[in-house]
Amino acid sequence: MVHDSSGWICGGVVHNLLDHVHLGEQVRLIRSEDFAAEPVSVPAVRRFIRWCCETVGGDPDACELLASELATNAVNHANTPFRVTFAALRGQPVRVEVRDWSLRLPEPRAADLDDAGGRGFELVDALAAEWHVDVNEAAGYKVVCFTLAGDAA
To answer: Which terminus of the chain is less hemmed in, N or C, by CB atoms within 10 Å?
Structure first.
């Protein structure tokens, strides 16, 4: 991840500068929205991601589920406001990022059969083409990113 005074670049996508734009042939949709660290934000994230996927003609189900899991982690574990960014570039997989203001890293674990939670990263592992965490200690935030398999088209 590269940072400069006008925003940040993660995976070749500039955030804050190119929020919800269509740029020629390459960019189909880049959109970011901010959410409060409250449980009511999780269904709002699902609606936001569904709208983004439908806007670019993609199947929203897996993307919506994974973004919901990351949003739930931001609410339950980071307990800070968070930003969700959806990026769809032609010829590249859909990418979703969840940035929160906590440096606490996700702790994927294997849930027991009777556990009420703890399966979020099992879903991310199963449905995402790849995922990772970028941390900016100086600025005090982390970004959890995932990509889906295939082109957004």
So the answer is: C
